[in-house]
Automatic annotation (TrEMBL):
Keywords: Cell membrane, Membrane, Protein transport, Translocation, Transmembrane, Transmembrane helix, Transport. It is a single-pass membrane protein. Residues 44-87 are annotated as: Disordered. It comes from Billgrantia endophytica. GO terms for cellular component: TAT protein transport complex. One of its GO terms (molecular function) is protein transmembrane transporter activity. PANTHER family: SEC-INDEPENDENT PROTEIN TRANSLOCASE PROTEIN TATA (PTHR42982:SF1). This is Sec-independent protein translocase protein TatA.
Length: 87
């Protein structure tokens, strides 16, 4: 029993659907549905891959920016010399 619907009732409904649409149309619908699901899964996996690539690129960019920041701070520190050293 599935929520008040018995197996026999489901089989009768399935038989009526097969009589109305025929097995060829149902097979085509199944193929189209399977292709759509496959395309959806592929798109989701590609988007996840793109998200990972973007995240890795952002981390690399942030690391590179931090390197530049450290170098800029070192240069600024070098420019600010002790006035007694100049004499």
């Amino acid at each position: 029993m599935l929520g008040g619907i018995s197996i026999w009732q489901l089989l009768i409904v399935l038989g009526i659907i097969i009589l109305i649409f025929g097995t060829k149309k149902l097979r085509n619908v199944g193929t189209d549905l399977g292709g759509a699901v496959k395309g959806f899964k592929q798109a989701v996996s590609e988007e996840e891959k793109d998200d990972k690539d973007k995240a890795q690129a952002k981390v690399a960019h942030d690391e590179q920016s931090n390197t530049y920041d450290v170098r800029a701070e070192e240069k600024a520190a070098d420019k600010v010399e002790d006035p007694e050293e100049r004499k």
